[in-house]
Sequence to fold (658 residues):
Amino acid sequence: MGLDVVSRTPADVSQDGAVALEARADHAPARARGGAWEGASAEKHFLRYGMMPHMLCPGCGHGIVLDSMLRALARSYETLDDVAFVAGIGCSSRVVGYVDACTLHTTHGRPLTFATGLKLARPDLEVVVVTGDGDGLSIGGNHLIHAARRNIDLTCVLFNNEIYGMTGGQLAPTTIPGAYTSTSPMGNHERPFDAARLVEAAGGTFVARAQSFRTRDFEEIFLRALDHKGFSFVEVMTDCTEYFGRTNRLGNGADLLFSQARADVAIEADLAGRPTLQEVPARPVRPVMEMGVLHESRRQTLEEAMGLVEDGS
Amino acid sequence: MSRVNGSNGKVPARTPPARLEAGNLVVVGVGGQGVILASNLVSQVLLDAGYDVKKSEVHGMSQRGGTVVSHVRFGPEVHSVMVEPGSADWIVAFEWEEGLRSLSYLKPNGVALVSTERRIPPAAMLDHRDQSLKYPALGEVPFGVLALDTFAVAGDAAAAVPAVAQTVLLGALSVLLPFPVEAWQASINAWVPRKALTGNLRAFERGRALAPEVRAAEVAARTAARTVESGPEVVPSASASPVAHNGAKRSRDGVAEHLLPVVRIERSWCKGCDICVAMCPEKCLVLDELDVAVFARPERCTGCQLCALLCPDLAMDVLWVPAGDLTGWLFANEEDRVRAAADPR
Fold:
């Protein structure tokens, strides 16, 4: 059916409104539409092929995380018909536009509120919220802590690139001390948020931190977050090459990925002894951060408390 | 699970082995598989039985997944530590290619116990495209080679520590050597780390349970050696049992034999961020004059997938394709394929 509809000319479609509706409702994967190339790996079939190539800058870590998310989903889902992606505003939130699932592009900072409504209306859906550090921690900071407090069964992936990439490289609540941005030309003097610990303190029941560089680890963490009953929060460190990398003279996408590898301790404790960017005093210091699943517990979710789903706590 | 070339399936009656006068054993594998530990373990059994034992090993490249060879010689008095080519009574190989490579050490009537596990070292990948590295398939190996899918035999015994699977081969070897099972167990107890002890003992038992197959291999080797001396009427049996064949073809990624890795690039998606070029451990990729990634040195690719995993533009895929002309596989886009065919550079 999908191929027939696509092969019609726009004139045919406009004459027949029913066909246009049918075409819009057609959620056949890219494979059926002849989208992804021969031999393409499974996750490529979850892309909205007509939207590619994406709008992200060269070397942007968000693309790597998008690929990892799709790869993880391809391991557990045949189609994404029962998966809803909800996103706010920002570079990070743009990535859901490339996922061939049910997607919702919402107002700035409010993806979690839209997702809360969606989840309560349709508890059977797997709802994934994609948000960024500006979207989720700054304008949407209150929504984040309250979603964590309610422990609603959502999976929130926060792309932390330590800067406002879309609007011109302004200071974000996660910008590391000393970093230069367009609104901190003398270097940042503010203490950044530790988003993962914030959500844990607010009552999130699954809290993890991952890196775009360690794609396989992120896949595992993301799958565990999807499986978790309750508010799952994954903070993933990515790189803004154009604003963060260039303003702070940290090099190109590959250099930033290598700097992630050096700033990471907890995936393997032995890495603690390796040099970090502290060796270059004129440049901002990439903090050494704990990675992996930081907190996991089980308590009654909002849907269970409201009797929408069976209480398994 | 296992197969013996040239055996007719009949297993001869058990004859208790007499005390061996002397013997030569070669243990081969790649770094990390436990070759040294296994040869230590066998040497312990031999020492306890009162032999003079000498052992020598080559393990210089083992850290890089390179070859590890251990020679064990025993007898009333051993002078040289090295086993000469064509004089090994037994070969225990933890890896398929290493096993086949070391077959020149085997006596005409010797027995080789070879694991079908395959670990292709990066160095071997460098010139694999012209098929200069051609190993015999399972149907072509000489008599007396017993191919064992050690992971299948070990089963759950190797679930916690994968290296334990190779202990199956020691269990099989113990059938050919006239020492009581208690001597082997004591040696395993003495040499194997505590955490892997139970798994090792169970894997050893499972290998020892393969006694019929192992003896059939021994008989086949002796029969073949006699026939070769008397006349050229030996036709190696090419009918491999499918289970064993699957084992031989299985590599770590389930990749079949003679397939080569190719990085397929959707050029219209690539933004030239340089990540794949910087990350590729073998430096297979370059940026062309348009700042678009090109799979320039296919002969060096090991199929590690780093480029595809870290490509922010989702423009790459690593495919395993049949050996031969690769140009049809390099580009995801028909337009790029046509352009490349017009300008083969």
Notes: Strands of chain A lie at 83-87, 102-105, 126-132, 155-160, 206-211, 232-237, 292-296. Chain A has 13 helices and seven strands. The mean pLDDT of chain A is 80.
